[in-house]
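Following the same procedure, sequence and fold were stored together, as reproduced here.

>
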Amino acid sequence: MFAVVDCNNFYASCERVFNPALNGRPVVVLSNNDGCIIARSEEAKALGIKMGVPAFQIADFLVQNNVAVYSSNYALYGDLSRRVMNVLERFTPELEIYSIDEAFLNLAGLPVQLEEYARKIRATVLKNTGIPVSVGIGPTKVLAKTANHYAKKAPENHGIYVLDGPAKIDEALKLFAIDEVWGIGRQYSKLLKSIGVETAWDFIRLPDGWVRKRMTVVGLRVKKELEGISCMEMELIPAAKKVICTSRSFGEPQTELEPLREAVATFAARCAEKLRCQHSCAGMLMVFIHTNGFKANEPQYERNFVCKLPVPTNSTMELIRYALFALEAIYRKGYRYKKAGVLVLDIAPEDRVQGALFDRVDRAKHAAVTKTLDAINSKYGRDTLKIATQGSGKKWKMRQEKLSPSYTTKWNEIITVRV
């Protein structure tokens, strides 16, 4: 049996953990630069607030309904996610972290009563982290995701649903819309609906041959999982990323080269950190910049530049060097730049890097410096120590006018308790 544990309205729930005055009040969280709504509490959903709507379009409505509005605080959300996953590890020998707010637990062989165990998981996570979760359990990963849907969407289930018998599974699949099935995307949903398949139950009635031909082996695997045949193994070690991108829209448009240099250097440094985290090196780097395409009355410009690196690397200093070279090759005066970014590609394991005959970089020295850099920033917080070219970021940083404190990751913002 597999369990899926999914944090309820995760970003909004994180904002409530250290601010209990928000309990029962509508809460929304905004995207980068305080643009669109990307998370809503149940109270906000009940008001009819839609996901993705620009905040400025409903600003008066938010005020009139006493909605608490917050900028995205990814440092807080990431730390609380880590705490939730640490709690979940106690309940299973195998944990697959699927996303920042969701994980699979392998319950096979555990001598437990499933519904009681699910209640214990839910209560323990809430007690230890303050984050409410929903727990769905089923004999396969796809059925566990289906069970989690019922746990979350039906209030009478109190955040728990177990699919543990053929009759119960059949009943659930007959009511489960095909476009809600995990692994069935928008295009496959359109295809299936065009032949009269409206539910997961209709889907498993299709011949295997037809599914494999029209939906490949991936679609057939989903069908088998819905039939109770486990085809998807636990992924205990996340696969290394083949492309890493760090980019931001600026709080204010940038016209000068220097703030862009700071931003691009910082993005390259982030890419280097991510490469080292997965023990990889990149053989190519791309830098892009562009203006705001929505402002038709302003001159428009969009360019990118790709560098083939002499030797694949994860050195912060080296990636910044090439990123700045690329930026200066594409920068043009007279434009108001809205966004910049750095991508690293051609990624390979760091222990399989092919050297170059005329390479003059002291790679042992770079490795020692970046190891120290990572150790200090891990202990004292991101950017405690950084490359001078990254600058302060004051001119190009994102607009975050409604940012909550980073209660768990910054000493000067730790919560104060008065007794």
